[in-house]
Amino acid sequence: MRKKEARILIVDDDEDILFSARVWLKKFFTEVFTLSSPNKIIPTIHESEIDVILLDMNFRRGFEDGKEGLYWLSEIQEIDPNIPVILMTAYGEVELAVNALKKGATDFILKPWNNEKLYASVHLAVDISRKNKKLTRWENLQESNSPYELESKSPKMIEVMSTLKKVAQTDANVLLLGENGTGKLVMAEYLFRHSKRKNEPFVHIDLGSLSDNLFEAELFGYAKGAFTDAKTDKAGKIENADGGTVFLDEIGNLSLHLQQKILTLIQTKKLSRIGETKERFPDVRFIFATNADLKKLVSEGKFREDLYFRINTVEVHLPPLRERKEDLESLVAFFIKKYEKKYGKNNITLQNLEQISQYAFPGNIRELEHAIEREIILSESDFITLKLENTVNEGAITSLNIEEMEEKLINNALKKYHGNISAAADALGLSRAALYRRMEKFGL
After folding, report:
1. Rounded to the nearest 10 degrees, what angle do helices 402-416 and 421-428 cross at?
2. pTM over the 0.70 mark
């Protein structure tokens, strides 16, 4: 029988108990640790990803009140409430064990135990542990960054939404293309929320913000001791998304070396943590996005053609805001409502909607949102006017060339914030690393 991948910790002051429990459980689970003193429980939890703990209720000779077991149960729950704790107790301590169940223990095992019962209890606890951890990842990762979800009036967006609805229920790889600020993250989350994986994690990874050195550690994880700062084993973001969806943003910014690693992951559906040879098989659905022209990069030898064909099973182009002005009014209404709530204001009205409808919005929906938020913060009345001319070269839009507009946006942001990279990146909706790359691209 194939062993179940899990880390079991057994804590008891009786060496015979530790030996017999370890030998039996080692037949079914990949790693089984033992401790003869409960004082080492917390350091062990910090050093290793423990899935289940078997804990004796009494450690001091002559004391059988179970208070030590209850104390360490409480300590474990304080450190990591996701770890199921199975108490080991003698026949005369059943009432204590039942009390412990009320305080959060998962189960109790009577000494001497029945091996089949021990296995069944630990097996169930491992499943509970995985569900607990998955739920925690879900709660931490699932906070939606979606600024909006609207029924579009734009023919181009209606076509996009129609395509997304068709592919949402599948596991097909989807490539989202579009300028910065067109809502690629929103569409990725839309695909996720309408998929069969909607009750599992959604993990957004901004590849543009990762250096080559951090890439493998962040995506694939690492084993304890794999490098100087690897104090404990750590699962990567891909592994943490098991059962769910991974959104790899800014895929066009990867070096050829890292493109190969992504290609291998997609092809083989397996990975290994840094410093490990053991292969892991996370079950994830991939969505990709970029504002780059991948076909051009392929022709220039800067993007692997085999990777391009792997990631674009379905390719979706998101139109810029200037090509979907039919949605401008509803977007404005949504963002006003959002920031009224955030800043405790009411009945805000935009006075110059007709005027801004003539604006090209080089920063797209993100630019509109930031402009509305700024004016709501600064406004002393119920009426706001968007001063979009401050955003791009005093409003003098002489070209609709995307690269030219991007360079102007970056130039103006750097001037406005006096070269403060963090402030400029935040205003542009970019990470610092992404802004640095664009500055290098334009020689700024």
Report:
1. 130
2. no
